[in-house]
Amino acid sequence: MRRSVIQILIALSFLCVGAYGHAQPGDAPAMEEIPSLVVSVRVKPPLDFCGEPAPLNTFDARERLEKELLIMLWDRDQTILWIKRSNRYLPYIQNMLKADNLPDDLKYIPIIESSLRALAGSPKGAVGYWQFIKDTGERYGLGVTEDIDARRNIMTSTQAAITYLKKLHDDFGSWTLAAAAYNMGEQGLKREIQLQDTSDFYNLYLYQETQRYVFRILAAKLILSNPEKYGFIMSPEDLYPPQEFDSVSLNLPQRTPVLSVARAAQTTFKAIKDLNPEIRGHYLPMGSLTISIPRGATAGFQERLNQQLQTLQAQVVSDRVYVVKNGDSLSEIAARLSIPLSSLRQWNHLRQDQPIHPGDRLILHSN
After folding, report:
1. Element (H, E) at 315
2. Nearest-CA neighbor of 276 among 258, 299, 301?
3. pLDDT value for 122
4. Residue 155: left (phi > 0), alpha (psi -120 to 50), or beta?
5. Is the model more confident about 138 or about 1?
6. What's the predicted TM-score (pTM) here?
7. Which one from 32, 52, 66, 113 is the annotated catalytic residue?
């Protein structure tokens, strides 16, 4: 049984071997045009991360890199999405890295961290393109409130990551170690360096996730630097275009529905949420903030927004108030008044698990 499985795998590997390079950009590569996995993992030195060489002459480093390459090349659909999204997001990241004189290779970190997804989250509570946990994010200027999570904003999160990575590089004197510390935390890495008496990442025995981390970055660098070599043949039309937007500064006198801002920008609620993934719900907080609106929507935007705010203020006057009585529950009140429970929670900024008490005043919007 085991021999037959091995024979099948060998046969499949031969099917993947063929004359690479006949496809034209935009054509779906035929099976014979996709390099075999065996050929694809033949990586010859030199290979570096941020100018720091990876020791591919050692079997350990070679095996670890080959493993990550094989995983990425086998999971072709995910890697295709990486390539497509890279055209949309990496130019912003590259420009910001260049402006701060940081190595371009750092752009591969958010690919490994989040697959370039603003709403990506981890079981440990990391969120956004660069996967900041709440405490670290807030330490580097990424506020997290009921309405806004700045970790989801490509610009603010990249600037925070730049500041953090600079600090890690200053601490460890190496971009490779800075990347490892970004993954596992600086205190944990400092402890392991001291206990193992080496500051060479490739000779450190770390958590498996961190041991794989730099090699995953290197594998992503290899593929995204030359996708055609690995059978990812795409035309410019295949890539996701950068988002086109204008930035506007708001000074909101009250907590304001996103829909009101969308109407002022003459667009949809979804368009505003897509351009501003840091907006967590249906409202923007009172005060000053900057958001993105569709390109060209700035003309007349402030006047239309003022009209929306006036409408909201008039609505407050006509809103009804329900005073919670003994024995009331939110679901019973909603059913009795024929109001969606979710709307009642939203109007009153109530969390799903938040209780109500006798004497509480609930706003019931007139519309």
Report:
1. helix 301-318
2. 258
3. 94
4. alpha
5. 138
6. 0.80
7. 113
Contact 252, 285 (CB under 8 A): yes
pLDDT for the residue numbered 236: 94
- Per-residue pLDDT, averaged over 153-176, amounts to 98
Residue 8 has pLDDT above 80, yes or no: no
Q: Is 113 a catalytic residue?
A: yes
Q: Are residues 255 and 359 in the same domain?
A: no
Q: Which domain holds residue 162?
A: 2-238
State the Cα–Cα distance between residues 78 and 72, nearest whole angstrom: 8
User: What pLDDT is attached to residue 19?
Assistant: 35
User: Which of 12-16, 68-72, 117-121, 322-326 shows the lowest mean pLDDT across its residues?
Assistant: 12-16
> Residues with Cβ < 8 Å from 20, sequence gap 6 or more?
33, 34, 35, 231
Closest Cα partner for 49 from 225, 218, 226? Answer: 218
The number of distinct structural domains making up the chain is: 3
Question: Do 150 and 156 meet the contact criterion of CB atoms below 8 Å apart?
Answer: yes
Q: Which residues contact 200 (CB under 8 A, 6 or more apart)?
A: none
Using alpha carbons only, how large is the chain's radius of gyration in Å? 26
The reply to whether 265 and 338 lie within a common domain is no
> Residue 335 CA to chain centroid, in angstroms?
39
